[in-house]
Structure formats: structure tokens, C-alpha cells
């Protein structure tokens, strides 16, 4: 009698699934092997990297034009010498380093760095070789297996102007490479100016080519007729709002001076000229000389890298009376009929603010026309002490909201990076200094004449002139007017910003600023045949001579340009800032300057202090 073995039955039941599982795994391996060897050629490419080379085609960055179609920024071809360490063998090192003009130590250091990055992938050995250098090298490169050339482009500037606005391009840093998959080591990216703000638009899309190389490291054609290549797509062109001729003229006027010019088209917010002086040639920060030149500029005591137009915080001086008077008219601290006598000073308690000689009595119009400090102090104090305000915090908070609506105390968030907001003190600011009950209107009376705890930037002052020109509104100041084509207006800056001041009060201010130029403090800068409204300012400077300031717009009846000018250490606004603004307006509206003697006086002036 034969007994059944229970273990044998269990094995028989399990044998079939195990066999099926092994067969299935085998089939999967066979299918995968077929796919790798027959269907997908990418792995063949990696396996045969000794005869194939993967080249990244870098797109040309978008071009930049001025408002009239004149080229501001273009691309020029350069070349990076690449190395694949695994393919470098039996080269004449002495000949190679002589060809590049480097030392043996540099050669070894670079090879070690390339090997640490990858023995199998190409990395940059020598950057930014010019067309001439590449032509001399090309005939001999076949002698050095493992080395090949990667075409690139670098920015060029046909006019050595507007460096702070254009910005510059540099190598992408480790943090950017880590956070953005588009960038690889050796890639270039916009570092500042519009190159930075519009990086995604300007950079384009990379392409990839796979080429075959022979035993002498020479390109012998595309792999499989370019089936796996991708085309590079050039970056999108930008159309700037800058007027290149006006920008050139502004930088010419600011030779041997420190300060800024900001000119805006009031009806659009487009920046016509943005001059910050001293400046520099943007071509200095292109190519292999960029690092050395950047250090040179950074160590320059005149600070040419500092963008005064966007970052310099100045007390605005008497220019700020325009804003203060608008708030006074809006809140009822003064009216068009308000008149005060001016004995040549304002005095209250232990505070004295001096004034100049001018016609008496003074109303709002004459106070702007002749820049009366006495009227300014009285109206400022009366406005803050109106019975409708519960306390000083309420009064100053209301005043501050009006000032903020005029574009002060905050950034415009435009396409010009690194802009600073300036300072417009809040009630909390003064509470921290003096305590909630420790200050009153007289404590902060210096704000009436644009001094004290206040900071404004030149672009904010130009925007104030644009607001008056528009009778109460503004568009965000910006420097790129169109993207891709001149008719494709930049959609980010089409919204109108209304101030909290009624338009009727701007009519009063327009008349007052017109009279300032016609018969007031700015009369020396009248332009024959052109109506202009303006306001002079002298900015007190505890570190030296006062700064000269002026804002203006023209023509008064149909404003096409609004402008601010600040000349550091030059004294009164009527003497220097106003004439520069006058010349800029004449240049823009008529395309020429007829007052040669007036122009020569500015060109010969120097206010540089070291």
C-alpha cells in the first residue's frame, strides 16, 4: 500500500505559479532588451559617447530697441572651449597651453575641476573666446581629443549709455542652478536691470544637437540626420521707452557731476531717459573682463555702480511743497484765497525757518512761484491742526495717505529692479521717537519744506511732476513699452492710478508751477516758444554743499514730458538743476538745442568731490 506524501502535493501546487513568474520576468527582460537595442537609440548614444558629442545650442537673447526703433543691445558670437576629461589622451600639453596663453598650473587646475564635475560630460575649460581667437585655434583643435568648441553669444552695446537701466548678464550661480532646471553650470543669466527683470522673455529656449566625431575629434555630421536634435528658439525682442538721443544728451550734461535725471511721458508712464551719474560703459561688464572691471567699478570712490535715480534717498527740499500744498488744498488747511504776510522768516516757539524776499502778501500761487517757506510752514501746521482731526496721529495719518497716493514712501514695483521706497514717517514712527503725546505739528514742521524725517527718490519726484501734468493721476513708471513687437504694449503698466487729491486742486498747482517758470524762481530756465511748469528746490545737505533740485513738465497745455533733476553739491535748484531740465525738455520736444551759451555753461560746470 502506497501512502501520499503531503509535501509533494504542496510542491506540485506551487511549481506552476513559480514557473509562470520566472517566464514572465524573462519576457520582461527580453522586451526591455529589445526596446533598448532596437527601439530607443538614446542609450546607444550614451554608450558610444566616444564617437558622438551632445552639443547644447544656446539661443540668442532677445534684442533691445529704443522707442524709435534704434538698437540698444544686440548679440555678438563668442565661443566656450569645452572638455570631456575621459576623452583627453596623449595631447601635447605644452602646445595646448601656448595656444590658450595659460600656465601649466592653470591647465591642471581646470582639468581637475572638470573631472570633479564629470569624467563623461562636457564642461567649460576656457570661457568666451572671441571670433578672432577661435579662428586661430580652430585649425589646431583636432590635435587635442576631448576638447571642442561650444558657440555662445554675449551682449554688445552700440551706445555706451544707460548701463543701470540695461543691466548686465553673468554666469548663473549655484542657488539658481539648484532651483531652476533650465540652467546648468556655465549658463548666463540677467543679473541686473531689464536683463534681470525680463530674463524669462529674453533668454529663449535651448536646443540640442548630437554630432558624430572622428578619431581626430572633428565634426563629421549629425547623428541619424538630426532625428534627435531640437532647435534653439531665440529670445523675444524688447522695445524700450528710452529715447536714445535724449539719454545720450542727459549723460553728456552730467559729465563731471553727481546726481540724476528721470524723464517720463506723463500720458503713459514710459521713462524717456534715466540718467544716473557718474555712470559707466555697459560694455565693461561683458566677457572675460567683466569680473576685473566690476571690481574696479566697485572700488571707485565716485560709486558709478550706484543707481541714484532709483536708490538715492534725498530730502526733496522745496520741491515737496507741491505735494504739501495739494494736501492742504484737499483737506481745507488753505484755499486759493488764503493769504499770509512773510516777514522773511517763520518763527514759533524756539523754531525759526528763514525765507527770501518776495512780493507780499502771499497766497498759494505766489507761495509756489517764489517758494515761500513762511506760507509753507503756516499751511502745513494749519492743515494738521484742523478741528476735524481727533489727534495728531489722525492728522498725520491722513496727510501720509495723501502723500502715499502721490507715489512717495513705497516702490512702484516696475521693471527696474532694486528701487527703494524712500521714507514718509507714519504716526507710529513719531510715537516711537517722542511718545504718543510727545509730539505735535511744530515738532515736525521741517516736513513743510521737504526736510527732516523724509526721503524721496528721483523717480518719485519725476512721477510727482507727471501727476501734476496729468491733473491727478499717473501710470507706473516703466522702461519697456512693448514686448515682441512695437504694437504689443507691455500689459503690466496700462492701469491708471488715481491720487486722493481732487483734480480741481491740480489746476491751481499747474498755474502756480507755470508762473514759477515764467516769473518766479525758475524764470532763468524759460524755453523760448515752449510753456513749462516747474518747481525749484534746494536740498539741505549736512555733509557738504546743498543739492540742486528741480521738477518740471511741458508743454503746460499738453504735457509730453515730466522730469526731475538733482545735482549733488551744486547749491540752489534755480542755478543748475532747472537749466539742465530746461535743456532736456528743449532737446526732447524740438530735437535740437538752440541756446548754445546756456548749454555750454552746464557742460563746463563740475561739482565732483572726492
Describe this structure in words.
The strands form seven sheets. Strands 2, 3, 4, 5, 10 and 18 form a six-stranded mixed beta sheet that branches. A five-stranded antiparallel beta sheet has the order 12-11-22-21-20, with helices on both faces. α10 (244-253) packs antiparallel against α20 (577-590) and α13 (321-331) crosses α15 (373-384). The chain starts with 5 loop residues before the first helix and ends in a 6-residue tail after the last helix. The protein is built from 21 helices and 22 strands. With 610 residues, the protein is of the alpha+beta class. It folds into two domains: 52-240, Penicillin-binding protein 2a (Domain 2), CATH 3.90.1310; 244-282 and 304-604, Beta-lactamase (3-Layer(aba) Sandwich). The mean pLDDT is 91. The protein is elongated, with a radius of gyration of 34 Å. The protein is 36% helix and 19% strand.
How much helix is in the residues? 25-40%
Please summarize the sheet with the most strands.
Answer: 6 strands, mixed
Structure class: alpha+beta
How many angstroms does the end-to-end distance come to? 119 Å
Number of domains: 2
Sequence stretches where pLDDT stays below 50 over 5 or more residues: none
Amino acid at each position: 500500500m502506497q501512502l501520499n506524501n503531503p509535501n509533494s502535493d504542496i510542491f506540485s501546487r506551487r511549481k506552476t505559479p513559480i514557473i509562470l513568474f520566472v517566464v514572465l520576468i524573462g519576457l520582461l527582460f527580453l522586451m526591455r532588451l529589445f526596446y533598448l537595442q532596437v527601439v530607443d537609440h538614446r542609450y546607444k548614444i550614451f554608450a558610444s559617447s566616444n564617437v558622438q558629442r551632445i552639443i547644447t545650442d544656446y539661443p540668442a537673447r532677445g534684442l533691445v530697441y529704443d522707442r524709435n526703433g534704434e538698437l540698444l543691445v544686440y548679440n555678438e558670437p563668442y565661443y566656450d572651449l569645452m572638455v570631456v576629461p575621459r576623452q583627453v589622451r596623449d595631447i601635447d600639453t605644452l602646445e595646448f597651453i601656448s595656444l590658450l596663453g595659460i600656465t601649466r598650473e592653470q591647465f591642471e587646475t581646470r582639468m581637475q575641476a572638470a573631472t570633479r564635475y564629470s569624467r563623461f560630460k562636457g564642461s567649460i575649460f576656457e570661457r568666451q573666446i572671441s571670433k578672432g581667437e577661435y579662428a586661430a585655434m580652430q585649425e589646431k583643435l583636432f590635435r587635442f581629443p576631448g576638447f571642442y568648441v561650444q558657440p555662445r553669444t554675449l551682449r554688445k552695446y552700440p551706445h555706451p549709455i544707460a548701463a543701470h537701466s540695461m543691466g548686465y548678464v553673468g554666469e548663473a550661480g549655484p542657488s539658481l542652478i539648484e532651483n531652476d532646471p533650465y540652467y546648468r553650470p556655465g549658463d548666463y543669466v540677467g543679473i541686473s536691470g531689464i536683463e534681470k527683470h525680463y530674463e524669462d522673455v529674453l533668454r529663449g529656449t535651448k536646443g540640442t544637437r548630437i554630432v558624430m566625431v572622428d578619431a581626430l575629434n572633428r565634426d563629421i555630421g549629425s547623428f541619424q540626420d538630426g532625428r534627435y536634435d531640437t532647435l534653439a528658439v531665440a529670445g523675444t525682442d524688447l522695445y524700450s521707452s528710452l529715447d536714445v538721443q535724449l539719454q545720450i544728451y542727459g549723460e553728456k550734461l552730467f559729465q563731471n557731476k553727481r546726481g540724476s535725471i528721470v524723464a517720463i511721458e506723463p500720458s503713459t508712464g514710459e521713462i524717456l531717459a534715466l540718467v544716473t551719474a557718474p555712470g559707466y560703459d555697459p560694455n565693461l561688464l561683458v566677457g572675460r573682463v567683466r569680473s576685473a572691471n566690476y571690481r574696479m567699478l566697485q572700488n571707485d570712490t565716485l560709486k558709478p555702480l550706484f543707481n541714484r535715480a532709483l536708490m538715492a534717498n534725498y530730502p526733496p527740499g522745496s520741491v515737496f511743497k507741491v505735494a504739501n500744498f495739494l494736501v492742504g488744498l484737499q483737506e481745507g488747511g488753505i484755499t486759493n484765497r488764503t493769504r499770509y504776510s512773510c516777514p522773511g522768516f517763520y518763527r514759533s516757539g524756539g523754531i525759526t525757518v528763514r525765507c527770501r524776499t518776495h512780493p507780499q502778501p502771499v497766497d498759494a500761487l505766489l507761495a509756489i512761484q517764489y517758494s515761500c517757506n513762511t506760507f509753507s510752514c503756516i499751511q502745513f501746521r494749519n492743515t494738521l491742526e484742523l478741528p476735524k482731526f481727533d489727534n495728531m496721529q489722525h492728522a498725520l495719518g491722513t496727510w501720509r495717505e495723501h502723500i502715499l497716493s502721490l507715489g512717495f514712501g513705497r516702490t512702484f514695483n516696475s521693471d527696474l529692479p532694486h528701487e527703494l521706497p524712500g521714507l514718509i514717517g507714519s504716526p507710529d514712527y513719531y510715537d516711537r521717537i517722542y511718545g504718543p503725546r510727545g509730539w505735535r505739528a511744530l515738532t515736525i514742521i521741517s516736513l513743510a519744506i521737504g526736510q527732516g524725517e523724509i526721503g524721496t527718490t528721483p523717480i518719485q519726484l519725476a512721477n510727482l511732476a507727471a501727476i501734476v501734468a496729468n491733473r491727478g493721476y499717473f501710470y507706473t513708471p516703466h522702461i519697456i513699452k512693448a514686448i515682441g513687437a512695437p504694437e504689443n504694449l507691455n500689459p503690466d503698466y496700462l492701469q491708471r492710478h488715481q491720487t486722493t487729491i481732487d483734480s480741481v486742486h491740480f489746476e491751481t498747482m499747474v498755474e502756480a508751477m507755470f508762473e514759477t517758470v515764467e516769473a518766479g524762481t525758475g524764470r532763468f530756465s524759460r524755453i523760448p516758444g515752449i510753456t513749462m511748469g516747474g518747481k525749484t528746490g534746494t536740498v539741505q545737505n549736512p555733509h557738504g554743499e546743498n543739492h540742486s533740485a528741480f521738477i518740471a513738465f511741458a508743454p503746460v497745455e499738453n504735457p509730453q514730458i515730466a522730469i526731475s533733476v538733482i545735482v549733488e553739491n551744486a547749491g540752489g535748484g534755480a542755478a543748475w538743476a532747472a537749466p539742465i531740465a530746461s535743456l532736456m525738455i528743449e532737446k526732447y520736444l524740438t530735437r535740437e538745442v538752440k541756446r548754445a551759451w546756456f548749454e555750454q555753461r552746464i557742460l563746463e560746470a563740475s561739482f565732483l568731490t572726492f
